[in-house]
């Protein structure tokens, strides 16, 4: 039986693995169906992590050193797709894996994070991957010297618009309000960028194109419809928490969740189920910042250590 199962390999999961193994747990496995790093590896720029050696580096470069450090004390990475978690009568947990495999653990930390939310405009699904994207780092290169649009008003949207301005000939930022959730300094930086144009109090009504891909967007604005002819649009309108592994056969969750599906935890990252912890973007009130996710992982690991010690 595992001492601790960590589900998710982003900053929260990696940090949890580091603190758990360094704290003395010998049998700790991090389940992640891909390479460790998490969603942040798709970010074009990280510049606000305390002590960062190279502010402004990409998320991929930033996370590239984490696994070596976090595995130094014995953390193991298992490439597996976790499909569920069940608690047994003896207090242990079953980790259900794809292929009807089961791993048992004394405690579990869930750090599965979140995924980009769809904006919901007509044509979004039809042209997803053919002009509609949620990753500027992944797809920005395809729009070199072309005009593109960014939908959203948070930090990610504005930061990615700035990143795209280094590639595209022009970037339109489309936002449904005048005000922005992004940090004022980030917004000001974008406003000073000559290649960025703000289109506020506007929404995307429809994306249109042909077999070759996206041709443009029909916007609803204060002055009526506007035809914005762009071959690419990047949407940053929030995230959906990846909580499906916490759902039971009857449709309910194994632990308490709040509106929106985030896991309800206390300051120790403990859920209402003894031995089950949640950290990072999946937990309630998560600020969606790498430094916080890493801290969550550390807290969850320390709490798990205490929980496991008290089992004996």
Automatic annotation (TrEMBL):
Q: Which domain of life is it from?
A: Bacteria
Family annotation (InterPro entries): FAD/NAD-bd_sf, FAD/NAD-binding_dom, Ferredoxin-NADP_redctase_2, Pyr_nucl-diS_OxRdtase_2_AS
MF terms in GO: oxidoreductase activity, acting on a sulfur group of donors, NAD(P) as acceptor
Keyword list (alphabetical) reads:
Disulfide bond, FAD, Flavoprotein, Oxidoreductase, Redox-active center
Q: Which residues form the FAD/NAD(P)-binding domain?
A: 3-297
Q: Which family does it belong to?
A: Belongs to the class-II pyridine nucleotide-disulfide oxidoreductase family.
What is the protein named? FAD-dependent oxidoreductase
